[in-house]
């Protein structure tokens, strides 16, 4: 008798990602001396102790040895709750019991930039990046589910930041494709059921039910209200929207990258007339990239900033320079658009 359907689903999702990671490993050069056995790749799971990440950890522990992959785990102690260090130690014990090694806890200091949720996320990814570099990991698995993807799409829609925000989380992201999200096509209930049938203890973060947090309100109030008004299937539809939006955004980004060189003069300055001739979606991507290259932080650069810069091209009336995040200014001079540090 095979495993429970929920367990089979999570294992299959992880197995596919591990095969992709193995296929992405660089080929060994032809040896001139007797070859030494190559070190097996290391894959880490980022685990909070919640149902999603514990299900992911269990699937990684089961699948990795069969493929000759070393499997480890990292839990991040954000220090935002009393006893968080004790909880992190408990998660390490759970990961070790699953057979994951190394299994470590990393404590971080959470700042305030961008709000509590964004600051915690930034601190967490910085810690995971550092751990992956230190341990030489080929990849870090994240337990985001289809429900998380739907929430991310709705948050992007609320910000009004364009199609890239609607594309949600990528299955592969980070430097060199470090981060992998095997569960984006699985719902949260599947992960929780997999933990239940495997008798895996899980920790439910009280922040996930705290109405002070935007994502918590969306999860417990917003999405249920949408399903009540529109019927079941909202989560699946939002996740499908994310994939379609990502495909479109990737195509437009590629177009903008190709068009960027053709709208610059010999000195590398953007020519307003050539920019004006481009479709708005392509032109604004070029403007955004130019602002980021000039020093504007990508996370602080919103659609309204780019719209103001765009008006220097499409609605030129002699207006002055536009101030952007990171002390960057955009200014029209003699038919050229100059974006620089102020």
From TrEMBL:
Could you confirm whether the keyword Ligase appears in this record?
Answer: yes
* Residue ranges annotated for the tRNA(Ile)-lysidine synthase substrate-binding domain, each copy included: 270-337
Supply the EC number(s). 6.3.4.19
Q: Where in the cell is it found?
A: Cytoplasm
Q: What does the entry list under GO cellular component? A: cytoplasm
Top-rank taxon, per record:
Bacteria
Per UniProt, ATP binds at 48-53
What keywords sit in the KW lines?
Answer: ATP-binding, Cytoplasm, Ligase, Nucleotide-binding, tRNA processing
Cite the InterPro entries for this sequence: Rossmann-like_a/b/a_fold, TilS/TtcA_N, tRNA_Ile_lys_synt, tRNA_Ile_lys_synt_N, tRNA_Ile_lys_synt_subst-bd
- Which residue ranges does the record assign to the tRNA(Ile)-lysidine/2-thiocytidine synthase N-terminal domain? 43-221
What molecular functions are annotated in GO for this chain? ATP binding; tRNA(Ile)-lysidine synthase activity
Record Gene3D superfamilies? 1.20.59.20, HUPs
Which GO BP terms, alphabetically? tRNA modification
Quickly give the catalysed reaction. cytidine(34) in tRNA(Ile2) + L-lysine + ATP = lysidine(34) in tRNA(Ile2) + AMP + diphosphate + H(+)
Database matches in Pfam families: ATP_bind_3, TilS
Please report which protein family the annotation says this sequence is part of. Belongs to the tRNA(Ile)-lysidine synthase family.
* Role of this protein: Ligates lysine onto the cytidine present at position 34 of the AUA codon-specific tRNA(Ile) that contains the anticodon CAU, in an ATP-dependent manner. Cytidine is converted to lysidine, thus changing the amino acid specificity of the tRNA from methionine to isoleucine.
* HAMAP family, A to Z: tRNA_Ile_lys_synt
**Domain-related comment:** The N-terminal region contains the highly conserved SGGXDS motif, predicted to be a P-loop motif involved in ATP binding.
Query: What is this protein called in UniProt?
Result: tRNA(Ile)-lysidine synthase
Q: Which organism is it from?
A: Streptomyces tabacisoli
Taxonomic lineage of the native organism: Bacteria, Bacillati, Actinomycetota, Actinomycetes, Kitasatosporales
């Amino acid at each position: 008798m095979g495993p429970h359907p929920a367990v089979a689903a999570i294992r299959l999702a992880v197995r596919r990602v591990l095969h992709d990671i193995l296929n992405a490993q660089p080929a060994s050069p032809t040896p001139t001396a007797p070859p030494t056995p190559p070190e097996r790749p290391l894959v880490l799971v980022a685990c909070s102790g919640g149902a999603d990440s514990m299900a992911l950890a269990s699937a990684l522990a089961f699948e990795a040895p069969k493929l000759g992959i070393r499997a480890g785990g990292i839990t991040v102690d954000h220090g935002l709750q009393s006893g968080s260090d004790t909880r992190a130690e408990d998660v390490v014990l759970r990961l070790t019991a699953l057979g994951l090694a190394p299994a470590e806890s990393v404590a971080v200091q959470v700042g305030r930039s961008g709000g509590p949720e964004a600051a915690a996320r930034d601190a967490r990814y910085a810690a995971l990046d550092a751990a992956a570099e230190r341990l030489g990991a080929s990849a870090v698995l994240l337990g985001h589910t289809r429900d998380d993807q739907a929430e991310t799409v709705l948050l992007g829609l609320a910000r009004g930041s364009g199609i890239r925000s609607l594309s949600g989380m990528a299955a592969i992201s980070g430097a060199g494709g470090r981060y992998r999200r095997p569960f984006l096509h699985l719902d949260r209930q599947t992960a929780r059921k997999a933990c239940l049938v495997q008798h895996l203890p899980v920790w439910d973060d009280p922040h996930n039910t705290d109405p002070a947090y935007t994502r918590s309100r969306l999860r417990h109030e917003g999405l249920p209200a949408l399903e009540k008004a529109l019927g079941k299937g909202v989560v699946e539809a939002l996740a499908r929207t994310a994939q379609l939006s990502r495909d479109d955004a990737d195509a437009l980004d590629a177009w903008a990258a190709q068009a960027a060189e053709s709208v610059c003069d010999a000195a590398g300055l953007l020519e307003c007339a050539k920019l004006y001739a481009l479709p708005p979606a392509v032109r604004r991507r070029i403007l955004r990239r130019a602002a980021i290259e000039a020093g504007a932080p990508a996370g602080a650069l919103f659609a309204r900033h780019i719209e103001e810069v765009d008006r220097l091209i499409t609605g030129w009336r002699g207006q002055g320079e536009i101030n952007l995040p990171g002390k960057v200014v955009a200014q029209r001079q003699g038919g050229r658009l100059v974006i620089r540090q102020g």
